[in-house]
Amino acid sequence: KMTQLMRAAKSGTKDGLEKTRIAVMRKVSFLHRKDVLGDSEEEDMGLLEVSVTDIKPPAPELGPMPDGLSPQQVVRRHILGSIVQSEGSYVESLKRVLQDYRNPLMEMEPKVLSARKCQAVFFRVKEILHCHSMFQIALSSRVAEWDATEKIGDLFVASFSKSMVLDVYSDYVNNFTNAMSIIKKACLTKPAFLEFLKRRQVCSPDRVTLYGLMVKPIQRFPQFILLLQDMLKNTPRGHPDRLSLQLALTELETLAEKLNEQKRLADQVAEIQQLTKSVSDRSSLNKLLTSGQRQLLLCETLTETVYGDRGQLIKSKERRVFLLNDMLVCANINFK
Protein backbone atom coordinates (compact mmCIF):
# COMPACT_ATOMS: atom_id res chain seq x y z
CA LYS A 1 0.00 0.00 0.00
CA MET A 2 2.78 2.43 0.88
CA THR A 3 4.41 1.79 -2.50
CA GLN A 4 1.15 2.77 -4.19
CA LEU A 5 0.93 5.93 -2.09
CA MET A 6 4.50 6.89 -2.93
CA ARG A 7 3.80 6.38 -6.62
CA ALA A 8 0.69 8.56 -6.41
CA ALA A 9 2.67 11.37 -4.76
CA LYS A 10 5.70 11.06 -7.02
CA SER A 11 4.56 13.44 -9.73
CA GLY A 12 4.13 16.29 -7.24
CA THR A 13 0.89 17.40 -8.91
CA LYS A 14 -2.20 18.57 -7.05
CA ASP A 15 -4.11 15.59 -8.42
CA GLY A 16 -1.39 13.18 -7.32
CA LEU A 17 -1.27 14.58 -3.81
CA GLU A 18 -5.04 14.58 -3.50
CA LYS A 19 -5.12 10.92 -4.54
CA THR A 20 -2.45 10.24 -1.95
CA ARG A 21 -4.44 11.98 0.77
CA ILE A 22 -7.64 10.09 -0.10
CA ALA A 23 -5.81 6.78 -0.30
CA VAL A 24 -4.19 7.28 3.10
CA MET A 25 -7.45 8.33 4.71
CA ARG A 26 -9.31 5.33 3.22
CA LYS A 27 -6.63 2.90 4.30
CA VAL A 28 -6.28 4.24 7.84
CA SER A 29 -10.06 4.74 8.19
CA PHE A 30 -10.64 1.10 7.18
CA LEU A 31 -8.07 -0.18 9.67
CA HIS A 32 -9.42 2.13 12.35
CA ARG A 33 -12.98 0.88 11.72
CA LYS A 34 -11.92 -2.77 11.77
CA ASP A 35 -9.54 -2.78 14.71
CA VAL A 36 -10.96 -0.10 17.00
CA LEU A 37 -14.63 0.56 16.35
CA GLY A 38 -15.68 -2.98 15.52
CA ASP A 39 -19.20 -2.96 14.07
CA SER A 40 -20.13 0.53 15.20
CA GLU A 41 -21.09 3.11 12.61
CA GLU A 42 -19.72 6.28 14.22
CA GLU A 43 -19.08 8.65 11.36
CA ASP A 44 -18.36 12.32 11.00
CA MET A 45 -19.37 13.88 7.68
CA GLY A 46 -18.89 10.54 5.95
CA LEU A 47 -15.40 9.94 7.37
CA LEU A 48 -14.42 8.13 10.53
CA GLU A 49 -12.44 9.97 13.16
CA VAL A 50 -8.81 9.13 12.42
CA SER A 51 -5.83 9.89 14.58
CA VAL A 52 -3.40 11.59 12.22
CA THR A 53 -0.58 10.67 14.57
CA ASP A 54 -1.12 7.08 13.39
CA ILE A 55 -0.04 8.06 9.87
CA LYS A 56 3.68 7.38 9.79
CA PRO A 57 5.16 8.60 6.52
CA PRO A 58 8.60 7.30 5.63
CA ALA A 59 11.29 9.67 6.82
CA PRO A 60 12.84 11.54 3.85
CA GLU A 61 16.48 10.58 3.56
CA LEU A 62 19.14 11.80 1.15
CA GLY A 63 21.51 9.18 -0.20
CA PRO A 64 25.30 9.59 -0.37
CA MET A 65 26.46 12.61 -2.36
CA PRO A 66 27.50 11.51 -5.87
CA ASP A 67 30.81 12.60 -7.40
CA GLY A 68 31.16 15.38 -9.95
CA LEU A 69 28.52 17.79 -8.58
CA SER A 70 28.90 21.50 -9.27
CA PRO A 71 29.22 23.90 -6.29
CA GLN A 72 25.59 25.02 -6.85
CA GLN A 73 24.37 21.42 -6.85
CA VAL A 74 26.19 20.80 -3.57
CA VAL A 75 24.61 23.90 -2.00
CA ARG A 76 21.15 22.93 -3.28
CA ARG A 77 21.62 19.50 -1.76
CA HIS A 78 22.49 21.05 1.62
CA ILE A 79 19.43 23.32 1.42
CA LEU A 80 17.25 20.30 0.67
CA GLY A 81 18.74 18.66 3.76
CA SER A 82 17.73 21.72 5.80
CA ILE A 83 14.17 21.51 4.43
CA VAL A 84 13.98 17.83 5.35
CA GLN A 85 15.41 18.39 8.83
CA SER A 86 13.22 21.39 9.65
CA GLU A 87 10.07 19.69 8.36
CA GLY A 88 10.80 16.56 10.40
CA SER A 89 11.34 18.68 13.51
CA TYR A 90 8.12 20.62 12.84
CA VAL A 91 6.01 17.47 12.43
CA GLU A 92 7.45 16.04 15.65
CA SER A 93 6.56 19.27 17.47
CA LEU A 94 2.95 19.03 16.26
CA LYS A 95 2.78 15.42 17.41
CA ARG A 96 4.11 16.43 20.82
CA VAL A 97 1.39 19.05 21.19
CA LEU A 98 -1.23 16.34 20.66
CA GLN A 99 0.40 13.37 22.38
CA ASP A 100 2.02 15.12 25.36
CA TYR A 101 -0.57 17.84 26.05
CA ARG A 102 -3.94 17.60 24.29
CA ASN A 103 -4.58 13.87 24.70
CA PRO A 104 -3.55 13.63 28.40
CA LEU A 105 -5.61 16.73 29.24
CA MET A 106 -8.66 15.30 27.48
CA GLU A 107 -8.31 11.96 29.30
CA MET A 108 -7.32 13.32 32.72
CA GLU A 109 -9.66 12.73 35.66
CA PRO A 110 -10.49 14.92 37.43
CA LYS A 111 -10.32 17.47 34.65
CA VAL A 112 -7.88 20.35 35.06
CA LEU A 113 -9.09 21.85 31.77
CA SER A 114 -12.60 21.26 30.42
CA ALA A 115 -13.10 19.48 27.09
CA ARG A 116 -14.48 22.71 25.60
CA LYS A 117 -11.39 24.67 26.61
CA CYS A 118 -9.10 21.88 25.38
CA GLN A 119 -10.76 22.05 21.98
CA ALA A 120 -10.32 25.81 21.94
CA VAL A 121 -6.64 25.66 22.93
CA PHE A 122 -5.67 22.94 20.44
CA PHE A 123 -8.00 24.07 17.66
CA ARG A 124 -6.91 22.81 14.19
CA VAL A 125 -3.60 21.28 15.34
CA LYS A 126 -4.68 17.83 14.10
CA GLU A 127 -5.58 19.21 10.67
CA ILE A 128 -2.25 21.04 10.36
CA LEU A 129 -0.42 17.83 11.27
CA HIS A 130 -2.44 15.98 8.65
CA CYS A 131 -1.43 18.46 5.93
CA HIS A 132 2.25 18.07 6.79
CA SER A 133 2.03 14.28 7.08
CA MET A 134 0.82 14.25 3.47
CA PHE A 135 3.62 16.63 2.52
CA GLN A 136 6.18 14.32 4.13
CA ILE A 137 5.00 11.35 2.04
CA ALA A 138 5.55 13.33 -1.16
CA LEU A 139 8.80 14.85 0.15
CA SER A 140 10.19 11.40 0.91
CA SER A 141 9.63 10.30 -2.67
CA ARG A 142 11.16 13.47 -4.09
CA VAL A 143 14.24 13.26 -1.86
CA ALA A 144 14.83 9.63 -2.86
CA GLU A 145 15.13 10.64 -6.53
CA TRP A 146 16.76 14.05 -5.95
CA ASP A 147 20.01 13.37 -7.82
CA ALA A 148 18.03 12.37 -10.92
CA THR A 149 15.44 15.21 -10.94
CA GLU A 150 16.64 18.02 -8.59
CA LYS A 151 13.11 19.42 -8.35
CA ILE A 152 11.31 20.62 -5.23
CA GLY A 153 9.37 23.78 -6.16
CA ASP A 154 6.39 22.01 -7.73
CA LEU A 155 6.00 19.92 -4.58
CA PHE A 156 5.52 23.05 -2.46
CA VAL A 157 3.03 24.45 -4.97
CA ALA A 158 1.01 21.23 -4.98
CA SER A 159 1.09 20.88 -1.19
CA PHE A 160 0.44 24.42 0.03
CA SER A 161 -1.60 26.18 -2.65
CA LYS A 162 -4.83 24.41 -1.65
CA SER A 163 -7.56 26.42 0.02
CA MET A 164 -7.70 23.77 2.76
CA VAL A 165 -4.20 24.78 3.92
CA LEU A 166 -5.15 28.45 4.12
CA ASP A 167 -8.34 27.57 6.00
CA VAL A 168 -6.73 25.45 8.71
CA TYR A 169 -3.79 27.80 9.22
CA SER A 170 -6.10 30.85 9.26
CA ASP A 171 -8.25 29.24 11.94
CA TYR A 172 -5.18 28.33 13.98
CA VAL A 173 -3.48 31.73 13.66
CA ASN A 174 -6.69 33.66 14.38
CA ASN A 175 -7.34 31.51 17.46
CA PHE A 176 -3.78 31.67 18.80
CA THR A 177 -4.29 34.72 21.04
CA ASN A 178 -7.44 33.15 22.50
CA ALA A 179 -5.64 29.84 23.10
CA MET A 180 -2.78 31.54 24.93
CA SER A 181 -5.27 33.55 26.99
CA ILE A 182 -7.03 30.35 28.12
CA ILE A 183 -3.68 28.77 29.06
CA LYS A 184 -2.56 31.87 30.98
CA LYS A 185 -5.82 32.11 32.91
CA ALA A 186 -5.76 28.38 33.73
CA CYS A 187 -2.18 28.69 35.03
CA LEU A 188 -3.29 31.47 37.41
CA THR A 189 -6.46 29.77 38.64
CA LYS A 190 -5.66 26.04 38.53
CA PRO A 191 -2.45 24.93 40.26
CA ALA A 192 -2.90 21.37 38.93
CA PHE A 193 -2.82 22.63 35.36
CA LEU A 194 0.32 24.69 35.98
CA GLU A 195 1.96 21.66 37.60
CA PHE A 196 1.01 19.52 34.58
CA LEU A 197 2.70 21.99 32.20
CA LYS A 198 5.85 22.17 34.35
CA ARG A 199 6.04 18.38 34.55
CA ARG A 200 5.70 17.98 30.78
CA GLN A 201 8.37 20.58 30.13
CA VAL A 202 10.84 18.96 32.54
CA CYS A 203 10.24 15.52 31.00
CA SER A 204 10.74 16.75 27.42
CA PRO A 205 14.17 16.21 25.84
CA ASP A 206 14.66 19.87 24.89
CA ARG A 207 12.70 21.59 27.72
CA VAL A 208 10.57 23.48 25.18
CA THR A 209 7.39 24.92 26.74
CA LEU A 210 3.88 24.39 25.40
CA TYR A 211 3.98 27.95 24.08
CA GLY A 212 7.28 27.18 22.33
CA LEU A 213 5.64 24.24 20.56
CA MET A 214 2.40 25.99 19.69
CA VAL A 215 4.06 29.08 18.20
CA LYS A 216 5.78 26.92 15.55
CA PRO A 217 2.81 26.97 13.09
CA ILE A 218 2.96 30.78 13.22
CA GLN A 219 6.61 30.62 12.18
CA ARG A 220 6.39 27.80 9.60
CA PHE A 221 5.69 29.67 6.37
CA PRO A 222 8.29 32.40 7.01
CA GLN A 223 10.81 29.57 7.52
CA PHE A 224 9.74 27.90 4.28
CA ILE A 225 10.08 31.21 2.43
CA LEU A 226 13.67 31.72 3.65
CA LEU A 227 14.66 28.18 2.65
CA LEU A 228 13.10 28.49 -0.81
CA GLN A 229 14.73 31.89 -1.32
CA ASP A 230 18.11 30.27 -0.65
CA MET A 231 17.25 27.44 -3.03
CA LEU A 232 16.23 29.88 -5.77
CA LYS A 233 19.47 31.89 -5.37
CA ASN A 234 21.40 28.71 -6.08
CA THR A 235 19.25 27.57 -9.02
CA PRO A 236 20.67 28.73 -12.36
CA ARG A 237 18.51 30.11 -15.16
CA GLY A 238 17.17 27.39 -17.41
CA HIS A 239 17.15 24.84 -14.56
CA PRO A 240 13.91 22.75 -14.58
CA ASP A 241 13.28 23.67 -10.94
CA ARG A 242 13.64 27.46 -11.29
CA LEU A 243 10.16 28.36 -12.57
CA SER A 244 8.38 26.14 -10.05
CA LEU A 245 10.51 27.60 -7.23
CA GLN A 246 9.49 31.12 -8.25
CA LEU A 247 5.85 30.04 -8.30
CA ALA A 248 6.20 28.31 -4.92
CA LEU A 249 7.72 31.45 -3.38
CA THR A 250 4.88 33.57 -4.77
CA GLU A 251 2.30 31.13 -3.37
CA LEU A 252 3.89 30.98 0.08
CA GLU A 253 4.45 34.74 0.31
CA THR A 254 0.81 35.34 -0.68
CA LEU A 255 -0.32 32.79 1.89
CA ALA A 256 1.81 34.40 4.59
CA GLU A 257 0.40 37.85 3.75
CA LYS A 258 -3.17 36.54 3.92
CA LEU A 259 -2.50 34.92 7.28
CA ASN A 260 -0.95 38.13 8.63
CA GLU A 261 -3.89 40.22 7.44
CA GLN A 262 -6.46 37.81 8.87
CA LYS A 263 -4.54 37.69 12.15
CA ARG A 264 -4.52 41.50 12.28
CA LEU A 265 -8.28 41.65 11.71
CA ALA A 266 -8.94 38.90 14.25
CA ASP A 267 -6.81 40.67 16.85
CA GLN A 268 -8.65 43.92 16.22
CA VAL A 269 -12.03 42.25 16.66
CA ALA A 270 -10.81 40.68 19.92
CA GLU A 271 -9.47 44.04 21.07
CA ILE A 272 -12.76 45.78 20.27
CA GLN A 273 -14.72 43.12 22.16
CA GLN A 274 -12.44 43.55 25.16
CA LEU A 275 -12.66 47.34 25.05
CA THR A 276 -16.43 47.42 24.76
CA LYS A 277 -16.69 45.54 28.06
CA SER A 278 -15.42 48.68 29.76
CA VAL A 279 -18.24 50.96 28.57
CA SER A 280 -21.87 51.27 29.59
CA ASP A 281 -23.82 51.01 26.31
CA ARG A 282 -21.97 47.95 25.06
CA SER A 283 -24.45 46.74 22.41
CA SER A 284 -24.68 50.06 20.58
CA LEU A 285 -20.92 50.51 20.53
CA ASN A 286 -20.44 46.96 19.23
CA LYS A 287 -22.74 47.69 16.31
CA LEU A 288 -20.84 50.87 15.49
CA LEU A 289 -17.42 49.24 15.69
CA THR A 290 -18.23 46.07 13.77
CA SER A 291 -20.34 47.50 10.96
CA GLY A 292 -18.86 48.13 7.53
CA GLN A 293 -15.11 48.36 7.03
CA ARG A 294 -14.34 50.42 10.12
CA GLN A 295 -10.97 50.17 11.76
CA LEU A 296 -10.11 51.07 15.34
CA LEU A 297 -7.13 53.43 15.29
CA LEU A 298 -6.89 54.47 18.94
CA CYS A 299 -8.65 54.09 22.27
CA GLU A 300 -7.92 56.42 25.18
CA THR A 301 -9.42 57.36 28.53
CA LEU A 302 -9.91 61.13 28.72
CA THR A 303 -11.31 63.41 31.39
CA GLU A 304 -14.27 65.62 30.43
CA THR A 305 -14.41 68.82 32.46
CA VAL A 306 -17.15 71.46 32.56
CA TYR A 307 -16.38 75.00 33.82
CA GLY A 308 -18.75 77.76 34.88
CA ASP A 309 -18.79 81.42 33.74
CA ARG A 310 -16.25 82.37 36.40
CA GLY A 311 -13.90 79.51 35.51
CA GLN A 312 -14.94 77.36 38.44
CA LEU A 313 -14.98 73.56 37.92
CA ILE A 314 -18.58 72.39 37.78
CA LYS A 315 -18.02 68.68 37.01
CA SER A 316 -15.37 66.27 35.90
CA LYS A 317 -15.96 62.83 34.39
CA GLU A 318 -13.80 60.18 32.76
CA ARG A 319 -14.82 59.07 29.27
CA ARG A 320 -13.61 56.30 26.97
CA VAL A 321 -12.89 57.72 23.51
CA PHE A 322 -12.62 55.50 20.40
CA LEU A 323 -10.99 56.96 17.30
CA LEU A 324 -12.03 55.05 14.17
CA ASN A 325 -11.11 55.68 10.57
CA ASP A 326 -14.42 57.48 9.90
CA MET A 327 -15.74 58.65 13.28
CA LEU A 328 -14.98 59.54 16.87
CA VAL A 329 -17.01 57.80 19.59
CA CYS A 330 -17.21 59.04 23.18
CA ALA A 331 -18.63 56.53 25.68
CA ASN A 332 -19.43 56.40 29.38
CA ILE A 333 -17.12 54.13 31.39
CA ASN A 334 -18.67 51.17 33.13
CA PHE A 335 -16.92 51.23 36.52
CA LYS A 336 -18.50 47.92 37.53
Automatic annotation (TrEMBL):
GO BP: actin cytoskeleton organization; positive regulation of stress fiber assembly; regulation of small GTPase mediated signal transduction; SREBP signaling pathway
Keywords, comma-separated and alphabetical: Coiled coil, Guanine-nucleotide releasing factor
GO CC terms, sorted: cytosol
A Pfam family of this chain: RhoGEF
Residue ranges that the Swiss-Prot or TrEMBL entry lists as coiled coil: 242-275
PANTHER family, per the entry: RHO GUANINE NUCLEOTIDE EXCHANGE FACTOR, RHO GUANINE NUCLEOTIDE EXCHANGE FACTOR 10-LIKE PROTEIN
Domain of life assignment: Eukaryota
GO molecular function, one term: guanyl-nucleotide exchange factor activity
Domain (DH) ranges: 75-262
SMART domains recorded: RhoGEF
Official protein name in the record: Rho guanine nucleotide exchange factor 10-like protein
InterPro entries for this protein: ARHGEF10/ARHGEF17, DBL_dom_sf, DH_dom
